[in-house]
């Protein structure tokens, strides 16, 4: 047992009460539509919706879904590009009494179909013509048609303990796993955050997170519950931080809510005191750098930084730490303390609480816990356990308690990783690789160099080259799960136990910042030499060939943002991340810079080319 003093501290920090009263997610939005019908609810790229317009469209969608035979609790998929249509679709599904299953439009058909099958989603709201691989077991429903249907007179009122959404995350068996969250669980988290930070009608969020990432649940229902409003971005600007900054300024955004990498990208691309409207920056889902607090204060002097944590299986967030200062002894931002109605344990392999400073597995309990995994009772019973009449979710994360009851996050305990906020099961990638033609063995791991991370893989049994393997894999998993480096081997190295020798594979893999082994071609022009200097500094490489690829050298979205800012300062030309991703070699980037300089000289003003997405 824990020492008495430590047990008392744990009991005190976990005495968070029963949580907020169980409620449905959608009724407050309809209440706001009744009391303030003309208040703006959603700003889109090309249109705006008031609360009245939003709820009327949602009721029409609900009526159409009911006419298709959809009943309370039925899952309805949503595969729609980012924008106001996503929000009306989700609200319409809940107004029909159903639960929504978000699927990104960029999901490969193979993986999308696995999700539809697993969820038993027999209907899906879409805005484009279904592709040839669309499964016959799921009826596609055109959103525009649905919004012109006969509306329901009132939104459905199922039990708060019915499912609100099912979000799929990467699964270790090779199949995505669906996390079932009830209205009551999500509402408990939302109400806790809104109360803590006094979110109200004056607040305005920039909704950047994808619909199938659970931060979007707060973007939608956190703000609309409070009578606030949402500005959406387009699919083409999901990775363009200069565009985000413009929207924050234009619409006086008050709330930022993303993974740390995207906040880092925003701060990298803005100048001092450019974002005075921001009052709250919430960041979660990954390791939070100690420099973010001071950088945020410089760029958004009125913004408070809130570091949150938890799991999709516990309704968005379960803990919070308000970052008011940075202790020089910290190695990372603390995990903090549980939210109302939620509880934490740090447990050893025998199920006993770990003393202060001793690492163990983080367990979450309380009002935010998921119902379970969709159609996977074995996984549910393994991950959700009951001890002493208390249900707990075993996160697979490592953490430890400090003597004052503050939690510290230490990383994962299993074969799961987090890269730029995406929770990835390496086993799912290995399974998909082994399903490719001729591949007999596959191993996947993560390589790190400082803050940079990349997925690497090795395969055996195929005559295909690495790029062909990557291209074939991209048809079965999202792009963030495609390894940046693939070794194609005749046979896998084995250890003394006859298992794949992963350590040998890692040793044989090029370093994360190592250029592929080919004769370097020196930069030829002044612009190429200037770009090479920027790459050398930001990527930590000593030599850059003019045909070297930015991502071959270890570049990522955040570093690309920094490159764009350096080019802007050096040459007074503005490149989008899309352009950098589409023209990855040194010579191509330098050529783009030269073209923009010519355009600027011709028109005597900077010109911004096409905005885009990664």
Automatic annotation (TrEMBL):
PANTHER family: NONRIBOSOMAL PEPTIDE SYNTHETASE, PYOCHELIN SYNTHASE PCHF. SMART domains: PKS_PP (SM00823), PKS_PP_betabranch (SM01294). Gene3D superfamilies: 3.30.300.30, ACP-like, N-terminal domain of ligase-like. InterPro entries: AA_adenyl_dom, ACP-like_sf, AMP-bd_C, AMP-bd_C_sf, AMP-binding_CS, AMP-dep_synth/lig_dom, ANL_N_sf, PKS_PP-bd. It comes from Actinopolyspora alba. Pathway: Siderophore biosynthesis. Residues 522-597 form the Carrier domain. GO terms for molecular function: ligase activity; phosphopantetheine binding. NCBIfam families: AA-adenyl-dom (TIGR01733). Residues 1-23 are annotated as: Disordered. Its cofactor is pantetheine 4'-phosphate. One of its GO terms (cellular component) is cytoplasm. The keyword Ligase applies. One of its GO terms (biological process) is amino acid activation for nonribosomal peptide biosynthetic process. This is Amino acid adenylation domain-containing protein. Pfam families: AMP-binding, AMP-binding_C, PP-binding. Keywords: Ligase, Phosphopantetheine, Phosphoprotein. SUPFAM superfamilies: Acetyl-CoA synthetase-like, ACP-like.
